[in-house]
Amino acid sequence: MKVLVSFLVDAKIRKMGNDILGKGNVIWYPSVSPAEILLIRDNNFPYDENVKFIQTITAGIDHIDISSLKEGTIVASNAGAYSISVAEHAFALLMERAKKICIKRDETLKGIFNPESTQMLYGKTIGIIGYGGIGSRVAEISKVMGMKVAAIGRGYRDKNVDIFLSLDKLNDIFKISDFIVISIPLTKLTHELITKDQLSLMKKNAIIVNVARAEIVKREDMLNHLNNNPDFSYLTDVWWDEPNLKDTDFSNLVVTPHIAGGRSGEIMEFAFKQAFQNIKNFMENKEVKNVVKNDENIVISRKSLGV
């Protein structure tokens, strides 16, 4: 089977792909010729009836329209490839706000010495919405910090979860958690999953960290909650209609520019290695990971592409 890589990569990634898949099996952009397998990044890829398997380099595929693919075409995401980096970013955001790092930095730069109380993580409950690669890594770090872990997932759980809930128990996790981390994929089921109904259940000084997709949270409800609840904090690596930043002037809001997945070579090398290995599994009729459920996929037009 031929594999077409539909976007530009550097020489190091080409060598990796050739080593894993076989040099004669890979067609590298900008060369284009018929192939049964595609590695894609966005909607700019050639597709014909001969394509049997499509692997994305991104963990999320909500920016890719797969509705026109012929029945039987298998699509796999690269979920899990960026889990370590994203989980670290989630905790960086959480620690920053719990310890008021940026707030106090800004004050001290102005010569203001204003010590205030901060929050401890130890002994607190962290709710993880989406217990895949990112969620399980967040849980692992949380246990080291002495936290209690509640998680929502589709069935997978491990020793780090104290309370495991299904998605229909979403309200419960908002009631019991001091901190929430959103790490669930954006699908038709999770679009605007979190609204004022859930936000109203949270503790006064609760913190939500979003390292998934902005559209999982209903925009107007979050903005209203930020405005009306100054002790609450929303820390997010994703924003609606990014890279356009609008309605971000809240002291209880921290936004980073979709960098949780990392932009460094070491992270991308890991991501490509996982993608190439999944392609190899398909070529060898072995189990393929992260197969997308086409009927749940939702497409959001994005000007900025994250992972």
Key attributes of the depicted protein:
alpha/beta; 307 residues; 29% helix; elongated; 15% strand; five-stranded parallel β-sheet; Rossmann fold
Number of helices: 8
> Which segments are poorly predicted (pLDDT under 50) over 5 or more consecutive residues?
none
**Strand count:** 12
Rg calc: 21 Å
Strand order of the largest sheet: 8-7-6-9-10-11-12
Q: What top-tier CATH class of the largest domain fits best?
A: Alpha Beta
Level-2 CATH architecture of the largest domain: 3-Layer(aba) Sandwich
Instruction: Give the integer mean of the pLDDT values.
Output: 94
Q: Please give the largest β-sheet.
A: 7 strands, parallel
Label the structural class: alpha/beta
CATH superfamily of the largest domain: NAD(P)-binding Rossmann-like Domain
Q: So what's the overall shape?
A: elongated
Compute the separation of the termini in Å.
27 Å
What's this, in brief?
The chain has 2 domains: 3-80 and 263-296, 3-Layer(aba) Sandwich (Rossmann fold), CATH 3.40.50; 83-255, Rossmann fold (3-Layer(aba) Sandwich), CATH 3.40.50.720. The chain has helices at 11-21, 83-98, 101-109, 133-144, 170-176, 196-199, 219-228, 265-283; strands at residues 3-5, 26-28, 37-40, 53-56, 74-76, 125-129, 148-152, 163-165, 179-182, 207-210, 233-236, 253-255.
